[in-house]
Amino acid sequence: MAFRRLIAPIASLVGLSLIGIVVFLWDYAWPAMKLNGFHFLISNNWNLGNLYGNPITQNGQQIMPGAEYGILFLIAGTLLSTAIAVIIAVPFGVGSAMFLAEGVPPVLRPWVSFFVELLAAIPSVVYGLWGYVLVIPFLGNHLFPFMVKHFGAVPYFAGPTGSGYGLLTSGLVLSLMIVPLIAATVRDALVARPIGQREAALALGATRFETLWAVELPGVRRVVIASTILATGRALGETMAVLMVGGGALNYLPNNIYSPITTMAAFIVSQLDSAMEDPTGMAVRSLAEVALVLCLISIIVNGIARLLLYFSGSERLEATAWM
Predict the structure, then answer these.
(1) For domain 76-320, is the CATH number 1.10.3720.10?
(2) Measuring CA to CA, which residue among 271, 299, 266 is closest to residue 285?
């Protein structure tokens, strides 16, 4: 009991920290929420207004003349780039984990796993610089024209391709950043599986791949979902890499997969200096509202993932999901 009383307050700090952050953002952004209303989420116009004019009163709040705040383009950029990253990263991450668990000799497995996990420790700005120097020119000059030529009939794959900055570039860079999270977590779970099930499947004539796919991988399905949650959270909140390769689109919804975008996290960083020049402070409070929306999206995504974890644990789904 003494140990529980000691650990419980420490463990509760995580949840209290999240509540504290949301409460702070809600309180600080409340004037902006009263000003912007629901229009904030469906408008595509972010305009600081005339910063050299005299403040005016609108909806009971002081703002600069012509100021308007809408973030639909930020929500679209954030969700679309994250979706592309997760769609690419999950199969590559799970495949890498399968290879590390079974395809690498046991003597080399710790070293190969170390280098895979090391990718997760690289700062995001390094990924951004790599994307800026190497990925953008390659995609803009070679891959994107190839995709338009051969897949242009597919919706959202038609041109123009632009210069290489944009939605698909951001998704590709983000996917490389989150693959190590998935690979390392799933690999550890596969290695920890009881060896008896593997040996039984092999004894019945299954190949090593069939054993992994039909016996080992279903047993770590919950781990795959949990690692995908972590990867999605990393992609949603990524800042510097997307800022460097996304194209910094403003008031612009992507019309194809090559279009420039910006995400909520990257937008807060890029606009903070300009927002601080607003003497009414409404621009900074609106950025806080952007941060609040990003937090709420992350909470909703994690809540949905927790529901998936809950339902994936039921015996009925356990028996039918891998038939």
Answers:
(1) yes
(2) 271
DSSP per-residue codes, 213-271: IIIIHHHTHHHHHHHHHHHHHHHHH--HHHHHHSB---S---SSTTS-B--HHHHHHHH
The model's confidence at residue 319, banded by pLDDT at 50, 70 and 90, is very low
Domain ranges of the chain: 76-320
Which three-class secondary structure state does DSSP give residue 65?
coil
Q: Are strands 61-63 and 56-58 parallel, antiparallel or unpaired?
A: antiparallel
| pTM of this structure | 0.88
Amino acid at 200: A
DSSP calls for 259-294: S-B--HHHHHHHHHHHHTT-TTSHHHHHHHHHHHHH
State pLDDT tens for residues 96-113.
888 888 878 878 888 888
pLDDT digits 0-9 by tens, 163-176: 889 999 999 999 99
CA distance 170 to 262: 9
Q: Which residues contact 309 (CB under 8 A, 6 or more apart)?
A: 222, 225, 226
